[in-house]
Task: structure prediction
Amino acid sequence: MNVIYFMLPLALILGALFVGLFVWATKSGQYDDLDTPAKRMLFDDDKLETKRKGDL
Result:
């Protein structure tokens, strides 16, 4: 029973921390554009880097 006195505040603090981080992420624009990163892998890059002789 004594463990509850330790675990309950710890769970509430961690929950509040994660909710705060989520609110911060949404306000800072982390979730504004969800479609572009998923489609980025479908398109080829315009510039292709060529390796020169002597480059490793």
